Amino acid sequence: MIETIRELAKKTDEKILMVVLDGIGGLPMDIDGDTELASAKTPNMDALAALSQLGQTELVAPGITPGSGPGHLGLFGYDPLKFLVGRGALSAVGIGVKLNAGDVAVRGNFATLGGDRIVMDRRAGRPSDEKNAEVVAQLKEVIKEIDGIPVEIYTESEHRFVVVFRSLGTPLGANLSDVDPQETGVQPMTAVAHDEASQTTAQLVNSFVTQAEAALKGDGQVNGVLFRGYSDVPHFPSFDDIYKLRAACIASYPMYKGLASLVGMDVLEVAGEEDALSGKVETLKKNWGEYDFFYFHIKKTDSTGEDGDFAAKVKKIELFDALLPELLALEPDVLCIVGDHSTPSKLATHSWHPVPLLIRSKYGRKDLAQRYTEDEALKGSLGLRRGIDIMPLLMANALKLQKYGA
Amino acid sequence: MIETIRELAKKTDEKILMVVLDGIGGLPMDIDGDTELASAKTPNMDALAALSQLGQTELVAPGITPGSGPGHLGLFGYDPLKFLVGRGALSAVGIGVKLNAGDVAVRGNFATLGGDRIVMDRRAGRPSDEKNAEVVAQLKEVIKEIDGIPVEIYTESEHRFVVVFRSLGTPLGANLSDVDPQETGVQPMTAVAHDEASQTTAQLVNSFVTQAEAALKGDGQVNGVLFRGYSDVPHFPSFDDIYKLRAACIASYPMYKGLASLVGMDVLEVAGEEDALSGKVETLKKNWGEYDFFYFHIKKTDSTGEDGDFAAKVKKIELFDALLPELLALEPDVLCIVGDHSTPSKLATHSWHPVPLLIRSKYGRKDLAQRYTEDEALKGSLGLRRGIDIMPLLMANALKLQKYGA
């Protein structure tokens, strides 16, 4: 399909704004209750929804819970079952680290280990970014290379960091098992190579874990490391190539910037802390004339869902609603509001549930949906779409796709 | 997709109960009338539907009328356009006959032939199982081998029997045309091989027809045989392998047991005649602790539809509704009610119409559908799903699928 879109796409002046409310889909806490979106007071989104087309999207496939990478790839039109990218590579690119062929990037979590190396907290109590940077500095002192292979360690945010193992000619494999057991009450796992090329990488990872625990053993909270998501360097056809779009990313968390960068978007500077809402809006306004496509990412709708904090997620939705008029004032030709997956507070993690999808353009049909909520989306005219169907719909609404066939 | 599910599936304690109401989808006799489901008084299903998610499913593809084999394969998550299994193989496995590579199993119907071999009744007036066994015994006396190839004949039920041609080294092909003309008023057809490997099989089949008619010519009702569904021995990845589910089949008709067995389910004993409703419930209760997945099959909703008996189908639906509380009392974590295809009484045969789909779990969204009927299913939140999407949705609702990608 991406090949067909590439052939049909044409450059026009129309501008597309894709707002991704991370993890926006939710669940009622009780079956007859309201979801986070339905509970939120969203006068601006309500007014917009009445003039828009609504529907739902499943980013990867029915029943499949998308990770952030596959969820976003779906949104950007790259079939996440075909285009695979490891979280390590995403994170590395997101913090501006250039990866070369043969290198392996690994996503790490700082963790709290108890007696006998039992994992007590897989996120080490979510340390501050400052604390994270301190611990990374401490590790960089001790681990500069392992078995002659250069090792780079980068701070990401909170409990997250990235390790890059630099190939010295022989490509390092990225096909090995996780250290992160994905549950507490058990020990970290030993990484095991799944192929010949990943033997060395497994040794590097296991040695890193041992050395890091030794270096951090004085710390009561941040005293272990967990790895999952090893990745070699992925190659994607670019946004410009496929869609003929000059595209920009406005996000504040590294992984999302990394992903946007992998598909060829310019990653714009955003001023401010954490989700930096007003900084993002400023960046959007300032760069509005320069691009045809903006990917505008809001993170905290997901983080609050992952914390299982229903009220906080509702609040984050309302905060987005409050800044919506500033986005509308820019008069995008096509505006899309969507998420990369659901993160119901009830589950406190990503889920498989479809995400509401809103598209506003001059070329929409009348639609019964009156709010951007899961319930109302069912009444929408867009139906239930796969993630990869969204970009063609946005391109079409921007009159950027030529007729297929004569 | 099945490969992705295999990678994501994990073993948990949650239990899934999939109730298959065979041929459940229907049609109104007049366009403004009610379907069988809508006409039935189903207080228990109604109460359940109000707390469940509804939708519809097409088991194979839009417009395609599923046979029971493909319909069930879809329900079990095996793409029926890719995983092919002949009805003969299903029936053979269902009655406990072990097939070896190279053998061919053939599904037969006893028929009533009139003068000049014209087919008067393709089911020979649906003889009793006892009569069926007598006729099979009679045929076994005369047909033990044909051209040196061993021939086994098995009774199934009513008008159905199974023939197995045993390979003597050279594999027998199963690519040949039917003997069953699928209509009355014409002669049985001569089987024609579609490839070299099936030449011998075609000769065996045609010779069997001739010999059987000679042996049965004294019987006014059961005096002919019709064949369709030739099959060699299929291989499937197992339910346990893909889904990590210890799965059990509770069904009373051979074909369904055979299919369940092919995908690796344990086929449990059911006491009782025909649909054996109370026997099935007893078996379910007795084995509830032993399995993670139950396939619970109800046949008579289809048989009555095939007879074109609207009122009888309504009655069978109401009989199922009456035993639903016993299923609910077991508190399955995920309950699914679905069919393997529609069998509208108006058509008196399988049809292409979507089948209502109901899923109840703790993780559903509110939904406007209030009954398990074709009309109400349109208001549901699940939308219109392919058959093979159902298992991933059930697995997700049972929290048995890990996140896809980081």
Show the helix and strand layout.
The structure is a homodimer of 406-residue chains.
Chain A: H1 2-8, E1 16-21, H2 36-39, H3 43-50, E2 53-58, H4 68-75, H5 87-94, E3 104-113, E4 119-121, H6 129-142, E5 145-146, E6 149-157, E7 160-165, H7 199-215, E8 224-231, H8 239-243, E9 247-250, H9 254-262, E10 266-267, H10 277-287, E11 293-298, H11 300-306, H12 310-328, E12 334-338, E13 355-360, H13 374-377, E14 383-386, H14 390-397
Parallel strand pairs in A: 1-11, 1-12, 2-14, 9-10, 9-11
Antiparallel strand pairs in A: 2-13, 3-4, 3-7, 3-8, 5-6, 6-7, 12-13
Helix pairs in contact in A: 5-9, 10-12, 11-12
Please provide a written account of the structure.
- 2 copies of one chain form a homodimer.
- The first copy, chain A, has 406 residues and is of the alpha/beta class.
- The first copy, chain A, folds into 2 domains: 243 residues, Alkaline Phosphatase, subunit A (3-Layer(aba) Sandwich), CATH 3.40.720.10; 141 residues, no CATH class.
- Helix content of chain A is 32%, strand content 19%.
- In chain A, the strands form 2 sheets. An 8-stranded mixed β-sheet of chain A has the order 10-9-11-1-12-13-2-14, with helices on both faces. In chain A, strands 3, 4, 5, 6, 7 and 8 form a 6-stranded antiparallel β-sheet that branches.
- In chain A, a hairpin with a 2-residue loop joins strand 6 and strand 7.
- In chain A, helix 5 packs across helix 9, helix 10 packs parallel to helix 12 and helix 11 packs antiparallel against helix 12.
- The first copy, chain A, is globular, with a radius of gyration of 22 Å.
- The model of chain A has no long low-confidence stretch (mean pLDDT 94).
- The interface between A and B is medium-sized, with 42 and 27 residues.
